[in-house]
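Handover notes (outgoing to incoming on-call)

Open items:
1. Nodulation protein NoeA: sequence verified, structure written out, both below. Nothing else pending on this one.
2. Nothing else urgent.
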Amino acid sequence: MTDAQATTRRHPASFRDPAGFVLESDGRLLRAVHPDAIGDMRMLFDSGLYDELVAAGLLVAHCGVAELPPSLPKDWAAWEAERLPIISYPSEWIDAQLHAASLLTLEVLRRALRHGMTLKDASAFNVQFRGSQPVFIDLLSFTRLPNDGRWLGYRQFCEHFLGPLAVYFHLPSLRMLQGTNLEGMPLAVCSAMLPARTWMKPGLALHLHLHARAARRASRAATETLDRSAHAMPPEQAPQFGLRLVDSLEAAIRGLVPRTKAASEWSDYRNHNTYTESEARSKLAFVLEAVDRARPTRAIDLGANDGHYAHELASRNVACTAVELDAACAEGIYERSLAAPHAALLNTVRVDLTNPTPSHGWAGQERASFSQRMQCDLSLSLALIHHLSISRQVPFDAIAAYLAELSPHAVVEYIPPDDPMARQLLAARSGITASYLRTLSEDAFRAAFDPHFECLAFSDPLAGGRRLHHFMRRT
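Nodulation protein NoeA structure tokens:
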């Protein structure tokens, strides 16, 4: 095997589409295209659709590859894709992100129809977030519009977008039950869970309830309610049929604008904490000094709360992912990021760090785990450690080992057990002994991190004896 072949790897999530696949070659992300699909790619580029979508920020940029990797047959083609700094999954998005991704998919489809093309599928995994903005990533999803006007992605759109949004809108308590199913939410399940009053909503009645009934009666999975009237239409009417379908779906989606979550005990933490104004400034200064030392291009803010520090890093040209479990906090981060001048560098995900997204899909490898996707240059763990060590009973050495896997640099705030916030958490636990409290001491904290990290700097004690540390992973 040559060196060039050794550095070329087919992406484990790219095998479902016979038209091609994604491969990584010498640090580049390439979209390999089968000879049978090159005609669709030429139409995409020659029609002006590609330029229109990229100019509008709706599609990641691609450029043609003159010299194919040796592992590709000579009659194939390849385009190099823009590499996004962060990859997130629909199960990690807040409702507003799923809503934005659904509207993006429909807008891309609408523009494709006007150029005589369509999307062959409608998976939510075709969308990623460039910072706070959704962007379409699947070049091979574009294909010539069939004469009968059918959209084969219709059912998938309803299962990946419309159904989940309707369920979360009407039954918000079910949001935390979402798993990592690659196939979305089955129509029959959505229809059964939704309240009877949703039959009075034309879009939900047609695209979910009646669609689910038609799917149950269908003899083949591709049969869809709205396709039947399109089979005998003249070819010139196909785009108009598709556009009417898009308009109908968009109306249904816009009727499901996510409701703002009620304020939580953590959503106003910045205004109700134990730091003085001077200490808050000192804390930010320490974080920024660590950023100057580490010089990261990608960072992750674990337990980001209101996203204050994530915004600070993004404003300094660091692509930062704000990770937060609290729904109200995550919504606040995302909403503020939409209007921020550094919106393209700030991503938001809602993840439970003690139960993050695992690797899943085919052979357990099709979709990478949260930890694999979030590896970066610098992690922030501010006002977080006591939640992990006390509330979730994760020992310091396990936390240190995990942070060492995520990034070579870590800014970690130690919170002593007699801190007011820590005392609140301890009050909710039983079995608190003197020996247990010693496992939460600063000496125990430093001893747990020492095998994994060198401490480059630490702060003077802040409120309640808290102390910031800048760790660098030992080689």
